[in-house]
């Protein structure tokens, strides 16, 4: 087995969407680039995105409108969006054979509905630009001298059989033949857990946040950065599921409700409200509208109790819905109550609603009193859920917090303290609602960092 040694213009740490885009972009500009990934293949989280369909971006072409959907601090993104915006993302993927379609809320997906096809384009990009991909290679720290990173420290990795070279300018990890390597290959039998170092002119840190840690995003780089003097905005789960006290939600696990409205209350005052899709999960509720309110709910919980109110029929105001229920009750007057709600509710929800209504399921519909019907009406319009808290990083789609925006140059993503260190993707203190915005943050910041390759390094 051959033992390769090489130096690099650019080392990209983390093979997620940001890392792959940054590495390919720098290599396309002529840099000799290595992409270092601790998993056995890049893009593990990318494959989970959009429930396996990957919502690549949001077809909001106007940068101001795009940024307004995020938050005030997202103004930081202007230069990067200018450099590589939504149209550029679509062109990048379309040009490489990935057809895309736009769905509700301007969400863009591959026509194939397969996140794997998005990953394939990125892997081809790495191959086409000649990026070397190192897998099973966790970076465990960065060493700094003065205002520069002098090396990345690596644990383990696949070690070649011909001994190893500890020269700081060289790397003795075994390459998997660039991006075209066979990632499914088993690691070589000889594997030593030793520390090695890798030297490059420039380092782009794309190691992500802390959400879905099973995919490799475990946030350790934030700790080294703090030691190197960077300010880290405390990471917290964002776009996460909400835990509720009501036990009946468990019976509805995986039930998706389209076109519902959820309102958030504290001290009986409405604090937030969204219309769209929600989904019950074990112990709680999720779906895009809940995920998008979760950050707000987290803030409210710091001040006191929070409750949700679920409107199952937002298109029908009380009187209209009451008329609709009465009509169904007339049609089903001799049926049992539990068999009278088929036209109004998904099957899975009927036993729960029947139980909550307090009306005996076997009662004949024609025996239901006006008061009982009114109670049922209120359940349809204001199904109450008491919030117990938020699910943590395990279930959070993104991480809020990360490297402080104040310490990053928004045009190049370069650290303001360390001249050859750059950032891209979720590691940066930027996060967005659902809808493809988070991946666009990755594409734009990664392109900016990758383009900032400077041959003087
Ligand atoms: C279930 C789910 C669904 C989502 N769906 C969407 C969606 O449809 N649309 C959207 O816009 N966003 C979506 N997101 C968010 C999106 O996936 C993230 O914003 C995006 O993956 C962040 O990319 P990244 O490259 O910055 O980091 P990551 O994707 O987290 O990649 C970081 C990589 O770095 C590697 N790494 C970390 N530390 C080290 C180290 N020390 N050494 C070597 N390698 C390291 C990790 O193994 C990982 O491969 C979703 C997230 C989840 C969890």
Report the major sheet.
6 strands, antiparallel, barrel
Please give the share of residues in helix: 25-40%
Shape: elongated
Task: Count helical runs.
Answer: 12
Number of strand segments:
19
* Measured distance between first and last alpha carbons: 31 Å
User: At the fourth CATH level, what is the homologous superfamily of the largest domain?
Assistant: FAD/NAD(P)-binding domain
| Relative strand content | 15-25%
Would you give an account of this structure?
The protein has two domains: 8-237 and 400-451, FAD/NAD(P)-binding domain, CATH 3.50.50.60; 241-391, Helicase, Ruva Protein, domain 3 (Orthogonal Bundle), CATH 1.10.8. Helices cover 28% and strands 23% of the residues. The chain has helices at residues 17-28, 49-52, 63-70, 78-83, 86-95, 115-129, 220-227, 288-301, 318-331, 350-357, 370-381, 437-451, and strands spanning 8-13, 33-36, 57-58, 100-103, 107-110, 132-134, 139-145, 148-155, 195-198, 200-205, 232-238, 242-244, 256-266, 269-281, 284-286, 307-311, 383-390, 398-403, 421-423. The chain is elongated and about 85 Å long. Residues 1-5 and 158-193 have low confidence and may be disordered. Flavin-adenine dinucleotide is lined by residues 13-19, 36-39, 44-46, 48-50, 54-55, 138-139, 206-208, 211-212, 216-217, 220-221, 397-398, 425-426, 436-439, 442.
Quick structural gist:
The protein has twelve helices and 19 strands.
């Amino acid at each position: 087995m051959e033992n390769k040694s090489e130096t690099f213009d650019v080392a990209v740490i983390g093979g997620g969407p940001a890392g792959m885009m940054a590495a390919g972009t720098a290599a396309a500009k002529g840099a000799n680039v290595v992409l270092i990934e601790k998993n056995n293949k890049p893009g593990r989280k990318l494959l989970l995105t959009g429930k396996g369909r990957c919502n690549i971006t949001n077809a909001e072409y106007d940068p101001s409108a795009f940024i307004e959907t995020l938050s005030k601090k997202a103004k930081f993104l202007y230069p990067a969006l200018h450099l590589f915006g939504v149209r550029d993302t679509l062109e990048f993927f379309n040009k490489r054979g990935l057809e895309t379609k736009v769905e509700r809320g301007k969400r863009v997906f591959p026509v194939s509905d397969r996140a794997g096809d998005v990953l394939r384009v990125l892997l081809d990009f790495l191959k086409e630009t000649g990026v070397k991909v190192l897998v099973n290679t966790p970076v465990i720290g960065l060493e700094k001298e003065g205002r520069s990173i002098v090396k990345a420290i690596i644990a383990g990795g696949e070690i070649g059989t011909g001994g190893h070279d500890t020269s700081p300018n060289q790397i003795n990890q075994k390459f998997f033949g660039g991006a075209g390597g066979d990632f499914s290959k088993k690691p070589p039998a000889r594997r030593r857990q030793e520390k090695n170092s890798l030297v490059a002119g420039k380092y782009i840190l794309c190691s992500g946040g802390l959400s879905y840690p099973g995919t490799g995003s475990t946030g350790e780089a934030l700790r080294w950065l703090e030691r190197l003097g960077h300010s880290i905005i405390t990471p917290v789960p964002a776009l996460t599921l909400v835990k509720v006290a009501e036990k009946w939600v468990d019976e509805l696990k995986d039930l998706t409700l389209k076109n519902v409205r959820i309102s958030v209350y504290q001290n009986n005052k409405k604090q937030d409200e969204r219309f769209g899709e929600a989904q019950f999960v074990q112990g709680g509720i999720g779906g895009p509208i809940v995920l998008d309110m979760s950050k707000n709910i987290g803030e409210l919980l710091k001040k006191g109790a929070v409750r949700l109110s679920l409107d199952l029929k937002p298109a029908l105001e009380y009187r209209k819905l009451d008329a609709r229920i009465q009509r169904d009750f007339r049609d089903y007057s001799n049926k049992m109550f539990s068999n009278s709600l088929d036209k109004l509710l998904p099957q899975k929800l009927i036993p729960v609603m029947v139980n909550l209504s307090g009306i005996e399921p076997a009662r004949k519909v024609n025996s239901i009193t006006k008061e009982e019907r009114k109670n049922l009406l209120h359940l349809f319009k204001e199904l109450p859920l008491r919030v117990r808290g938020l699910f943590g990083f395990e279930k959070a789609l993104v991480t809020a917090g990360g490297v402080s925006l104040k310490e990053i140059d928004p045009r190049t993503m370069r650290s303001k303290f360390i001249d050859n260190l750059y950032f891209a993707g979720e590691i940066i203190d930027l996060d967005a609602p659902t809808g493809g915005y988070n991946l666009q943050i990755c594409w734009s910041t990664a392109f900016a960092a990758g383009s900032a390759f400077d041959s003087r390094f």
